[in-house]
Amino acid sequence: MRMPTALPKETGMALTREEREQFLSEPHIAALAVDAGAGRAPLTVPIWYQYEPGGDIWIMTGRDSRKNELISAAGRFSLMVDRLEPTIRYVSVEGPVVDASPATLEQLREISARYLPAEKVDGYVEAAWTNHGEQLVLRMRPERWVSSDLGQV
Fold it and tell me: How far is CA 142 from CA 14, 79, 82, 107, 131, in A?
C-alpha cells in the first residue's frame, strides 16, 4: 500500500480562545493521551474531565492505575474532545500536571453530575467511592491548544 506524500490540508477554521474554552467546558468525553514509553504508542483512553474557562483541567484516576503511573512519569498529558453535530468540531489541549492530590467525595460527585443524569449520580458515587479504590485528582495547566470547526470555511 502506497502512503500519500502529503496530508490533505485541514479545511476548517481555528476556534477563538473563547470558543475553544467554552467548547472544552462542555461535558464531552475526552480522549486522554500520555507517553507510554520507548517502543510504545501513547496510551489513549476515554476519560471524564472537569474544566472552567481560564482554569486548569482536572481528571480523576486510580492511584494504582496505569494512567497515573504513565502521567507521573511523563509529567504531562493531552486531552482531545470532539463532536459531530451540528458541525465537526474539536479541541486538543496539552500541558503539565501541576497538582496531584487525593480525590474527595465532593469532587467525585461534581464530575459524576457533569456526565450522569441527576437520578443516577447518588448510586454511582456510592458504588464508585466504595469499589474503585483510592482515587487521585490530577490537574493539568493548558499550554498548547489545537482546535478547529470543520464546518466553517
Answer: 17, 10, 17, 20, 31
Residue 50 CB: number of other CB atoms within 10 A?
19
Pair type for strands 30-34 and 144-149? unpaired
CA distances from 68 to 104, 111, 119, 146 (A): 17, 18, 30, 24
Residue 65 phi, psi (nearest 5): -80, 155
- Whether the predicted pLDDT of 103 surpasses 90: yes
State which amino acid sits at residue 148: S
- Count the Cβ atoms, other than its own, within 10 Å of residue 13: 15
- Please give the average per-residue pLDDT across 83-108, as a whole number: 96
